[in-house]
């Protein structure tokens, strides 16, 4: 990066919010898993939407690429720069406004963490509809950019369904402020929907209006164990459309074993597969839960929690998985969306693929089975670049054969851009490129993401 651009950026955001320190940049150029690294020229931390817009103008005029970073929890290297980019961090855009308890909404900065939004909602007696294990780090701007799902998607939907309005700094340096006081605004193009899921390729989300929900009066949590994955999926199909469903999570026994070994939290039930079920609402769902499980093909008695402390214990294994997986080094991650009818086929074939390509690796499968959104993680997977590429390609082909999408709640990022056409037709991709060119004709914003 030339001195003129560095001075211009410092004039916009202040000297202390621009860094070219190699050590600082090195820490910002590695992805959340620690598996993928890039290189950047500078880090810039704007403090307002106008500053974001000015930074974008300066970088565009200088012909320098920009990679946008929030909490950097992307699992597909979506925040890893590839072109000596300027890293634009939203971390200072972290304000959380006053909760409107009547309209059940709140305006927040894109750099606000999910945990901060959840705290504000809880203090107002409400609930924010998206929850992730990375809640303390993940930012709502990044979550909107990838249309994140998470632990409560089966009840409340993905991040896009929580967005009522937003502010976006466009690649040309202008700012779109799309806010409305009405809950359903059908005036003109749905611009908010266009930027949600765009992974920062069309603009930088700087603030959002978020929908909040009433707090359920009753909640019950259960974990049921199964020896057979088909049996688990049969129960999952029944619960995913059940009245009051709040969470429906699949955990395999390998994940439970790792959690028991490294965190000291053992599985609550026996079985090769476990299903965490949570029901919530204005009425008590204890009896419907018991009736639904009475005739299921379980490996033993389910564990049930009706009080808060027991419910937290039942959630511990699921919550701890992501951290435990890193004990053996950076895992190789596959985020996949599948029809429930092909999950058994995928689980079996994926295990065979791993044994063929990386026999020393431990495959761990878990995720949001209500939506067929699963996370396959390969622990202790140490492959050179060519072997990893071969395994990755084979796994993407398997997902396509199982009629799934190669990307789900984590986005495409840089890791999956070569496989986009497995889930989108050539015409789809061409139309997406037209939209990208319309907003960013110079192609300088998040250039490594989504498209090759």
UniProtKB/TrEMBL annotation:
Q: Which GO terms describe its molecular function?
A: FAD binding; oxidoreductase activity
Top-level taxon: Bacteria
InterPro entries, per this entry?
Answer: FAD-bd_oxidored_4_C, FAD-bd_PCMH, FAD-bd_PCMH-like_sf, FAD-bd_PCMH_sub1, FAD-bd_PCMH_sub2, FAD-linked_Oxase-like_C, FAD-oxidored/transferase_4, Oxid_FAD_bind_N
Required cofactor names: FAD
| Gene Ontology terms describing biological process | respiratory electron transport chain
Domain FAD-binding PCMH-type, first and last residues per copy: 36-215
Q: Which UniProt keywords apply?
A: FAD, Flavoprotein, Oxidoreductase
- Would you identify the family this protein belongs to, as annotated? Belongs to the FAD-binding oxidoreductase/transferase type 4 family.
Q: Which PANTHER family match?
A: D-2-HYDROXYGLUTARATE DEHYDROGENASE, MITOCHONDRIAL (PTHR43716)
| Name this polypeptide is given | Oxidoreductase
Q: Could you tell me which species this protein originates from?
A: Mycolicibacterium madagascariense
Task: Write the lineage as a comma-separated list.
Answer: Bacteria, Bacillati, Actinomycetota, Actinomycetes, Mycobacteriales
């Amino acid at each position: 990066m030339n001195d003129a651009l560095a001075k211009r950026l410092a004039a916009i955001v202040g000297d202390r919010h621009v860094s070219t320190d190699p050590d600082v940049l090195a820490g910002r150029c590695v992805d959340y898993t620690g598996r993928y690294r890039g290189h950047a020229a500078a880090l810039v931390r704007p403090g307002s939407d106008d500053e974001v817009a000015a930074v974008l103008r300066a970088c565009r005029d200088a012909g320098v690429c920009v990679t946008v970073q929030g909490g950097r929890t992307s699992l597909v290297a979506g925040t890893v720069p590839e072109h000596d980019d300027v890293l634009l961090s939203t971390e200072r855009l972290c304000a959380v406004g006053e909760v409107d308890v009547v309209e059940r909404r709140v305006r927040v900065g894109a750099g606000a963490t999910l945990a901060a939004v959840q705290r504000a909602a809880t203090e107002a007696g409400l609930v924010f509809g998206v929850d992730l294990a990375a809640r303390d780090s993940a930012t709502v701007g990044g979550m909107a950019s990838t249309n994140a799902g998470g632990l409560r998607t089966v009840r409340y939907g993905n991040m896009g369904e929580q967005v009522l309005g937003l502010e976006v700094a466009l690649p040309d340096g202008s700012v779109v402020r799309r806010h409305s006081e009405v809950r359903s605004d059908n005036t003109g193009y749905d611009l908010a929907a266009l930027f949600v899921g765009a992974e920062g390729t069309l603009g930088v989300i700087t603030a959002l209006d978020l929908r909040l929900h009433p707090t359920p009066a009753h909640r019950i949590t259960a974990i049921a164990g199964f020896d057979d994955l088909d049996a688990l999926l049969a129960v999952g199909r029944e619960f995913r459309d059940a009245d009051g469903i709040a969470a429906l999570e699949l955990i395999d026994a390998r994940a439970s074993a790792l959690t028991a070994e490294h965190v000291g939290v053992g599985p609550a039930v026996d079985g090769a597969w476990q299903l965490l079920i949570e029901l919530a609402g204005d009425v008590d769902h204890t009896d419907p839960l018991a009736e639904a499980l009475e005739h299921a093909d379980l490996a033993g008695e389910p564990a049930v929690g009706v009080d808060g402390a027991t419910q937290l214990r039942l959630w511990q294994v699921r919550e701890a998985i992501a951290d435990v997986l890193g004990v053996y080094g950076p895992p190789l991650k596959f985020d996949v969306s599948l029809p429930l009818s092909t999950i058994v086929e995928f689980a079996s074939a994926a295990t065979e693929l791993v044994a063929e390509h990386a026999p020393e690796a431990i495959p761990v499968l878990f995720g949001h089975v209500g939506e067929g959104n699963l996370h396959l993680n390969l622990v202790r997977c140490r492959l050179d670049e060519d072997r990893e590429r071969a395994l990755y390609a084979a796994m993407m082909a398997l997902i396509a054969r199982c009629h799934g999408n190669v990307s789900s709640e984590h986005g495409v990022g840089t890791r999956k851009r070569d496989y986009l056409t497995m889930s989108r037709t050539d015409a789809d991709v061409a139309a997406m490129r037209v939209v990208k060119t319309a907003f960013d004709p110079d192609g300088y914003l998040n250039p490594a993401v989504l498209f090759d």
